[in-house]
Design a protein that fits this description.
single chain; about 180 residues; mainly beta; Chitinase A, domain 3; Thrombin, subunit H; four-stranded antiparallel beta sheet; 2 helices; about 35% strand; elongated
C-alpha cells in the first residue's frame, strides 16, 4: 500500500544532529497517522508515495523541524514558586502561579535548565529548537486508518506524538 492521506504508517528511525551525533533511535516500529498531527510536515511530504520497506534520508532545517531557538522564551523565576524537589529537566505547562516575567506565553512547556539558590532558569524552547536534524526513516508497514483515527487525526490518545510540531506551535506536543 502506498502512503497517502489518510493512512497509518509504522516507522523506525535514527535521528542525529547536523554533526551526526545520535539524538534518538526509534528501534521498535511505532504507528503514526499520516495526514494529521503525528508527524512534521516535511516528514509527511517526504513519506508521501512511499511503501513498506522504503528507506528515506532527510535533512531538516530548524524551520522544518522545531523552529529557531528563541532567547525570549528563557526566563528566571524565584525558586520559592516551585514545590520541592526541583530538578533540571523537569517540565511545566506554563509558568508557575505568581511568576514575575511579564509577556511569557502561557501555552508553552517550560523546561528547568538550571537551578540556583535564589532562582530557577526556565526555557520554553523545544529541546531541538535551532538544530538542523538528520533523519534516517524506515517504513515498516502502511495500513488504512480507522474511522476513529481519521476523526482524531492521530493514532492513539496519549501524548506519545513523536516528531510533531514543537510545544506552543500549532498542532504539536512533544518529542518522545
Amino acid at each position: 500500500m502506498e502512503i497517502r492521506s489518510p493512512c497509518v504508517v509504522s516507522l523506525t528511525w535514527k535521528l542525529a544532529d547536523a554533526q551526526n551525533r545520535a539524538l534518538d533511535d526509534l528501534a521498535e516500529p511505532v504507528e503514526f497517522f499520516f495526514g494529521g498531527n503525528d508527524l512534521l510536515a516535511k516528514v509527511e511530504e517526504a513519506l508521501a508515495g512511499h511503501a513498506s520497506g522504503d528507506e528515506l534520508h532527510l535533512q531538516l532545517e530548524p524551520a522544518d523541524a522545531f523552529g529557531d531557538y528563541r532567547p525570549e522564551l528563557v526566563c528566571f523565576e524565584d525558586r520559592k514558586l516551585f514545590t520541592e524537589p526541583v530538578e533540571t529537566g523537569m517540565a511545566y505547562e506554563g509558568l508557575p502561579k505568581g511568576h514575575a516575567t511579564p509577556g511569557m506565553p502561557a501555552d508553552v512547556i517550560y523546561i528547568v535548565t538550571e537551578i540556583y539558590p535564589s532562582h530557577v532558569v526556565l526555557d520554553g524552547n523545544h529541546p531541538l529548537a535551532g538544530m538542523a536534524l538528520r533523519l534516517h526513516i524506515k517504513v515498516r508497514a502502511v495500513r488504512d486508518a480507522t474511522e476513529a483515527e481519521i476523526e482524531a487525526r492521530s493514532v492513539g490518545d496519549g501524548p506519545v506524538t513523536v516528531l510533531a510540531s514543537a510545544p506552543g506551535r500549532s498542532g504539536g506536543t512533544t518529542l518522545h
